[in-house]
Amino acid sequence: MTKDVMATLLCDALRIVSSQMENVKALEEEIELVADQTADQSLQLCDRIEELKAKSAIEVVDLQREVLDLQRELLAAKNQQLDDLRATVVESVGKTVKEEIKSYSSVVRQPCNAPVNLKSVVKKVVEEKDRSTSLMVFGLEEEQDENLSKKVGELLLELNLKPQVEVCRVGSSGISGGDEVKNRPVKVSVGSSATVMEILNRAKLLKDTVRYRKVFLSPDLSREQRAERKKLVLELKKRTTSEPSKRHFIRGGCVVSVDK
């Protein structure tokens, strides 16, 4: 091989090496550009993540605030229900006390020569106290060998209540000679007058049930109170017919009418 040929080959080799070095340099520059772009994208992604975290934290705080507001509203509504129940109980107790004072006053005003039947007075007081802690259930189906306590307990469960009760049917036997059952009223005794008022306040829920829509709950009234109640019910029916555009109900010993 001559010097000229060798020189030519060497020049070709140098050109190839130079070209490859330029390619390598271009490749390095391209890698650096991609790395810079990836770093920028990573920074943008981190910024986006931080932004989402901050937004989520704000939304959580807002939701917590809404939950607290709802809890306050529920507490206020519960307090209002308790106030209404307390007012109803106070009104009922006040009415009973007034009736007892009136009864005692009439006894005191009797002439001295008229004998006072202390036993009957005490009996009346005991009966009044007994009625304040009991209520009447009308229309509850009567059966032979029935478990009355279980029946009343199931009825009260429809009102979301489960008090301790004593129950009994009132009146003569509901079974006639032809084995036809007459649904006698049920007297339900509970622990306090407050429990009685709570049951009566929820009694309207029964009309929305299939099983108890014909069952009616009432305070345990004396004969005189039943007569007065009957008058109020008649007046209520009369107003319901004559003024159907209004809502009518009995409260505080009188019929009240309000706009629907």
Summary keywords:
two-stranded antiparallel sheet; 11% strand; 260 residues; alpha+beta; 5 helices; four-stranded antiparallel sheet; 6 strands
Task: Outline the structure in words.
By secondary structure, this protein is of the alpha+beta class. Helix content is 62%, strand content 11%. The protein contains five helices and six strands. A four-stranded antiparallel sheet has the order 2-3-1-4. A hairpin with a 2-residue loop joins β5 (246-251) and β6. The longest helix is centred in the N-terminal third of the chain and has 106 residues, at 3-108. The chain is rod-shaped and about 155 Å long.
End-to-end Cα distance: 120 Å
Uncertain spans, ≥5 residues at pLDDT below 50? none
Overall outline? rod-shaped
Category by helix and strand content: alpha+beta
Tell me the series of helices and strands, N- to C-terminal: HHEHEEHEHEE
What's the quaternary structure here? single chain
Main sheet characteristics = 4 strands, antiparallel
Biggest β-sheet: strands ordered side by side in the sheet: 2-3-1-4
Give the C-alpha Rg.
44 Å
Helix content: 55-70%
Number of strands: 6
